[in-house]
Write the structure tokens for this entry.
Amino acid sequence: MHLDRELAAVVTALPDLHIHDLDGARARMAELASSAGQVVTGEVTVSDHELAGVEGVLVPVRVFRPSEATAPLPAVLLLHGGGFVMGGLEALTAQAVDLCTHLPAVVVAVDYRLAPEHPYPAALRDCEAALGWVASEAESLGVAADRIGVHGMSAGGGLAAALTLLVRDRGGPPVCFQVLDAPEVDDRVETFSARTFEDTPLWNHSDAVLSWRHYLRGWSGDVPAYAAPARAGDLSGLPAAYVSVYENDPLRDEGLAYASALLRAGVSVELHLFPGTFHRSAVLTGAAVSRRQAAETLDALRRALHPVA
């Protein structure tokens, strides 16, 4: 690995989030989120809701809105990472507050169901329900219904990509922009980076294999593009995208390939590979490369959701 100097200095202190021990990884991720503390200030109003999802399933969401906002704002549907098997709302608080205050925007974080207890398509259905709710409740949420973006990291990036495919094909609420941060989009796990990075921090080849095994548990036959967007034969008509990938990441090459496929389909794409990084290294927010990544993602979202007339 070619690690950024600041990241290399702290990498040994990172918790073990590898999912060979799923219960342990979930507990450590929850502890990490809890130890981060609440960063909500008076500038942000937070409310929790439970939406009616598919077949009566309740989907928890957390809404972050700038307290002083009066005019309708764009919305960002924020989907957490965790390999489809771990993560939740608490891990999104800092990022949601940052997006809410600095875009500004109404940020809706989704607590979708996790595999293997709830395999595909449970998580995608929950995300679809959340998007539909934001669109239908746009007036009460203070949202501009024509400016809804989706933002996902890792598995959340895969779900964001799948969601844009789903609403394109089924005529759902329009999504105007997608941020795909290290998107997990290819269940085959056969790219060069997937096969190469077998001992990387926080996420490695074995994690990728296991996460897909859990997510597709019980699925038989061909894997649909709504589960693994890299399998999509037609990516035309999708919203413009900002795709970021990490140099030392098993998911790197599938993110690059998906961005290239979007471009070939006529979708506008901004693509950035951050050198010296590894999967989830952005959680080390003090590193200069992490600060740069956060700033550039914010800038891409601002340009998409607050276009200059």
About this structure: The CA atoms of residues 242 and 300 lie 7 Å apart. The mean pLDDT is 95. The radius of gyration is 18 Å. The first helix runs from residue 5 to 10.
